[in-house]
Specification:
There is one protein chain. By secondary structure, the protein is mostly helical. 83% of the residues lie in helices and 0% in strands. The chain has one domain: Up-down Bundle (Growth Hormone, Chain: A), CATH 1.20.1250.20. α6 runs antiparallel to α7.
Length: 414
């Protein structure tokens, strides 16, 4: 068994080293630190807001602040790239997002305006990080390695989602059980660790040798709703409300310990399949697989209509697989579509990064308004259940339109 594990590890190391160059490795290392910090914020910050406010609307408003400020930060970042090197901007963005989430844990309260404000702060920091990170991914990767690159990143993220939520969730619960520290103090410790990892995330890029762009423009003149923008909106519907799973676990199934355990189990199941797919799948299969993952996303919401806890468990497991595959596949497809549109004008790279972000967040915000609307009409877990089903229905409709547009073109670009 030991020799078999060593053999697999050696084979995968060679496979990795033959395909991934130095700059891309640095992006991956930065992503390792980001993905350790990420589950603490995406999973437990939403849980923290729920704990202090007991309101689905408050959680949604925090995320609206985040998704509204992300494209604003992308735009400001494009302006600053003319004067400040990309390495510094990405490092500052990473550290600022870590500071913003930590400040909320220490000083945040249930006031709606304060929750929205902290969401905006975290979105600004993330916008500066992701605006530059997305640009570096577009510049440093090429079509032949992108599927493997994104599957590798997704596998790392899922491994982090196995360990971090499991340990963090039971760390919070252990404090209440042992009386050694309070739930509030547990959140403080976790988010200080989150800031440290975001600092390391930015430092890795800061010490790199990346070439800094000087965007000639930020906003694209094309105003039509083409297939690239449509795919971004659909992606926003898939990516906009991960807190629904978090809140359903807390409302129906238990505490942060169970939340962490279920999240870890979901990630463990998904991690193997994503890495295997990234190695074995052909590039031309991406569109079919993303449509299959979109269908699975819809089916996961359908399970919520079942009246038993088993329906919620099936939703959480299927939702994790579907959203992980979707988010892994949408990256290389969007980069390919962007390169097709920009043609040989490489100076417009950042314009497409910004444009993708605008339409992605448009879809995210629409999904959040659906959650808020249902929370006013129906309260508690029922609002989450019906809003998730409605969101799943809209996203698969958008993907159907995208699929038809691609099929109509002679010769797939992907």
């Amino acid at each position: 068994m030991y020799r078999y594990v060593i053999k697999i590890f050696t084979r995968e190391t060679i496979y990795f080293s033959e395909r991934i160059n130095g700059n891309v490795r640095r992006i991956i290392l930065s992503n390792v630190f980001k993905t350790i910090s990420g589950p603490l914020v995406t999973t437990f910050l939403n849980a923290f807001i729920w704990r202090i406010s007991n309101s689905v609307t408050s959680v949604a408003i925090y995320n609206i602040g985040l998704f509204l400020s992300l494209p604003i930060a992308f735009y400001l970042n494009g302006l600053l790239l003319k004067y400040i090197h990309i390495r510094k901007l990405i490092a500052w963005g990473a550290m600022f997002s870590g500071i913003a989430s930590t400040l909320f844990i220490f000083f945040g309260n249930s006031n709606t305006i304060a929750i929205f404000f902290y969401g905006c702060l975290w979105g600004l920091g993330n916008g500066f990080y992701w605006g530059n990170r997305n640009y570096l991914e577009l510049k440093e990767t090429y079509n032949e390695i992108r599927l493997y690159f994104y599957s590798f990143l997704s596998s790392i993220s899922l491994i982090a989602n196995i360990l971090v939520p499991l340990l963090a969730g039971w760390f919070i619960v252990f404090g209440n059980f042992s009386h050694l520290y309070s739930q509030k103090h547990a959140y403080w410790i976790l988010f200080i660790l989150s800031f440290i990892f975001m600092f390391l995330c930015g430092r890795v890029i800061l010490n790199g040798t990346f070439e800094s762009p000087i965007p000639d423009k930020i906003i694209l003149k094309n105003n039509s709703l083409n297939k690239r923008r449509l795919l971004n909106i659909a992606g926003g519907f898939v990516d906009g409300t991960p807190f629904i799973a978090t809140l359903l676990i807390l409302l129906v199934l238990g505490n942060e310990g169970i939340l962490g355990t279920i999240t870890a189990t979901m990630s463990l199941i998904t991690a193997f399949f994503i890495y295997w797919y990234g190695k074995k799948a052909k590039q031309t299969s991406e569109i079919r697989t993303i449509f299959a993952s979109s269908t699975l996303f819809f089916i996961s919401g359908f399970f919520l209509l079942f009246p038993f806890k088993i329906g919620i468990i099936f939703f959480i497991l299927l939702y994790g697989v579907a959203s992980s595959f979707f988010n892994m596949l949408i990256g290389p497809i969007l980069l390919s579509l962007s390169e097709e549109e920009m043609s040989k004008n490489i100076n417009s790279r950042y314009s497409f990064i910004f444009d993708n972000e605008v339409f992605l967040n448009f879809g995210r915000i629409l999904s959040l308004f659906i959650v808020i609307s249902f929370s006013f009409l129906i309260s508690g877990a029922t609002a989450l259940i019906y809003s998730q089903f409605f969101i799943g229905t809209i996203q698969i409709f958008l993907l159907l339109i995208f699929f038809v547009l691609v099929r109509k073109e002679k010769g797939d670009i992907i």
